[in-house]
Write a structure and sequence with these properties.
It is a single chain. The chain has 177 residues and is mostly helical. The protein has one domain. 74% of the residues lie in helices and 0% in strands. It has eight helices and no strands. α3 packs antiparallel against α4 and α7 packs antiparallel against α8. The model has no long low-confidence stretch (mean pLDDT 92).
């Protein structure tokens, strides 16, 4: 596959993301159920990514040699699934539109940026991507747990809210470290 065709998937997906019909609405009970399933899946998936990646790093050790981790088929699979999940996370924005809400600028463009970033990291086999994925999957496990708890009307989960922004900022600044 040549380099140009490799980049078609994110371009098409991002185009579709922008073209999503923002005025589309569905039954509120169906939307609530879909939101619970969506957040539940993301909690389980991100926890699995975080634990699986931590296990690979524990077994292989921290190695700063280019191409080392991608030689491990398990590492490659984990990173690939994580990359694909960034497309699935477009649903976060679509669920807001379906709920007659407008996503904030940062959220909308964050999803596009992460698809592009992880696409390049996976296609070009950037080993050090494990650092951002480990942190991101940990933060997303907590964040989507919070959203799921809110949807399920679990009052005690609200305590986590003030820590989520701190975790996201820590994630952001760790990315540049």
């Amino acid at each position: 596959m040549n380099q140009l065709t490799t980049h078609i998937v994110p371009v098409v997906a991002i185009t579709g993301y922008f073209l999503y019909p923002k005025e589309l609405r569905i039954n509120p009970y169906l939307l609530h159920g879909l939101s619970i399933i969506h957040n539940g899946l993301l909690v389980m998936f991100n926890a699995w990514i975080c634990l699986s990646l931590a296990e690979v790093l524990y077994n292989d050790g921290l190695v700063f040699q280019s191409g080392y981790y991608f030689e491990n088929p398990r590492f490659d699979t984990i990173i690939y699934y994580f990359y694909l999940s960034k497309y699935y996370e477009f649903l976060d924005t679509f669920l807001l539109y379906l709920n007659d809400k407008t996503p904030i600028f940062l959220q909308k463009y964050h999803h596009i940026g992460t698809v592009i970033f992880y696409h390049f990291c996976y296609v070009y086999k950037i080993d050090v991507v494990w650092k951002t994925i480990l942190i991101n999957s940990f933060v997303h496990t907590i964040m989507y747990s919070y959203y799921l708890g809110c949807l399920l009307k679990i009052e005690k989960v609200r305590v986590i809210r003030k820590y989520i922004t701190s975790l996201q900022l820590l994630q952001f600044f760790t990315f540049y470290a």
